[in-house]
């Protein structure tokens, strides 16, 4: 990649990251706004990323690679907690990806990798019957629209909920996770 093309790519991704981080509504982050913030022409973005969805996907993939690298020793509950925290921190970006055009939240490499990891967890815990579906069900609990919805429900402890959900699906021993706010979650009752 030529040096100027690489610089433009980095400038565009950095500008998009900032705009999505500040956006109240990620649908309002336009290609024009990204181009202006990056100091490039709109055509540069289209040549580099194809369209808005391509830009969002590239930024999302970069963030996932940086923050959600696979950890083979990680439990399913820990993985889901990291995904929840990632989506909470990058709410504008993850909402934009799940909403974008034909953009099924299931049609991206990060989802496929997470699904495969959770399918393996379920298979080890319960056997292969229904494992792919149960992995999808676990991932539904960390959809960006749910993360966004629960931002306005301080009485809900999503981290404790994720741990309880994985405990019930996988039949593992319950733990008592620390929520994002640092308080100890309530024990899981049977």
Average pLDDT for all residues: 87
Largest sheet: none
Taking all Cα atoms into account, the compactness measure Rg is 18 Å
Shape, please?
Answer: elongated
Number of helices: 10
Provide the structure class.
mainly alpha
**What string gives the helices and strands in order?**
HHHHHHHHHH
In whole angstroms, the N-to-C terminal distance is: 56 Å
Oligomer: single chain
* Strand residue percentage: under 5%
Overall tally of structural domains: 2
Any low-confidence stretches, pLDDT <50, length ≥5?
179-190
Number of strands: 0
> Could you estimate the helical fraction of the residues in percent?
55-70%
Mind sketching the topology for me?
Layout: H1 3-22, H2 31-38, H3 42-49, H4 52-67, H5 76-89, H6 91-99, H7 109-126, H8 131-140, H9 144-150, H10 158-170
Helix pairs in contact: 1-2, 1-6, 3-4, 4-6, 5-6, 5-10, 6-9, 7-8
Protein described:
This protein is mainly alpha-helical. It folds into two domains: 1-50, Arc Repressor Mutant, subunit A (Orthogonal Bundle), CATH 1.10.10; 70-190. 65% of the residues lie in helices and 0% in strands. It contains ten helices and no strands. Helix 3 (42-49) crosses helix 4 (52-67) and helix 5 packs antiparallel against helix 10 (158-170). Residues 6-67 form the HTH tetR-type domain. This is AcrR family transcriptional regulator.
